[in-house]
Amino acid sequence: MLEEIDAVNWGDLPGPRDRYEPDRVATGLRALATAKGLVQAAGAGSLLAGGGLVHDHSGAVFPAAVTAAPILLAIVRDGHPDAGATALGLLDDALAFAV
């Protein structure tokens, strides 16, 4: 899973400059994939929801969410249950927010 995260140049994916922060994506996904409990999963989720995959304050979703979706699903399947729940929440936001 970590190889899939590192294989993407998240900075090459488009997104509004005032909201999309591609440096949060790889860091957040790596942290979520390796999270061992609720606190670690919540920290990773905060990175991803605060400009990585979505921007929860404005209700925006970024194209990076499409690329990250299979990784998030792998975290649901193989990760810690708290990480999986966080990943599902991010996927739910990505489906509900405006592009």
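Above is the first protein from milestone M3; the second protein from the same milestone is given next.
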Amino acid sequence: MSKKTPFYAIHKQAGAKLVDFAGFQMPVQYEGIKTEHAAVREAVGMFDVSHMGEFFVSGPNALELIQKVTVNDASKLSPGKAQYSCMCYEDGGIVDDLIVYQTGEEEYMLVVNASNIEKDFDWISSLNTMGADLVNVSDKCALLAVQGPKSIETLQKLTDTDLSSIKFYTFEEGKLNGAEVYFSATGYTGEKGFELYFDTDAVDAEKVWNAIMEAGEEFGIEPCGLGARDTLRLEMGFALYGNDITKDTHPLEARLGWITKFDKGDFIGKEALQQKKEEGLQRQLVGFVVEGERNIPRQGYEIQNEAGDAIGEVTSGTMSITLGKGIGMGYVDKDYKDEGTEIYIAIRKKQAKATVTRPPFIKK
């Protein structure tokens, strides 16, 4: 039985195309992916991302648990700051990527992918040998992402919190239309914007949605679905769990070496990752741009060299709405990872020429 977010009735009413995604009934699109994508790039759009998972970790041993399960160094956080990170298995494979928020002196919020909520909670629980308080609040946490150049002007009408002072990857608690929310300057689109967390037991979620839609009306705000979320994140080269990162990939080959802090002390997967680093990487996640107007790379398509030998596989691909070209990401043998290298995507029994390009594909 699919779960529904607190905004399900609104999506139905707005005529959204709904699909089952990670066990939730979620909107793929409303007006259409192109319209929604353009709204976020040029003005403002709003996404219901309440399907994401939220765990609170608190108590004197909270930091110790987070340091053990994540690869980034959470000791660098302070209340009001957030950090992108991931969790690994002992062999270095990725359990999930997540955002760690420090919400208080000894309190943290972990935000994980919708499809991994149960798995992640069980995984962290199994490693909680130090007795930190760990609670899964996913079912009563609503999350809206308001993204785009006009996001601040839209939301500022509804709050006294000075949104322009909230720097990227920091957050503040405040009131939005009278409701208690976390304003988090994070998002998955590459645009300015905020992710708004609030407790559905305390807040009328639909009222919040309607107030934001009304505030953004003068800027042409659009409700946006998972389709535009995917095209927007791909233009920025942001990895998606289940596509670009999985239990069979590790952070170093997935271009996540920058969040993997070997000097922070022990964490799960550290030894395996150190060994992989010393041995040298055999493959690398790369971005690429495809030549030709109709050549759209899709997940699972083979990546080849000029001779037609398999050298990798596409993990994510789409037609870039901004560029009007096929773009994608995939793992390739180490000899083909350098920017500017010519590779070929096997599309409908033909080879489409592509160039290895370091994301983001659009320069902000």
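Note on the second protein: The mean pLDDT is 97.
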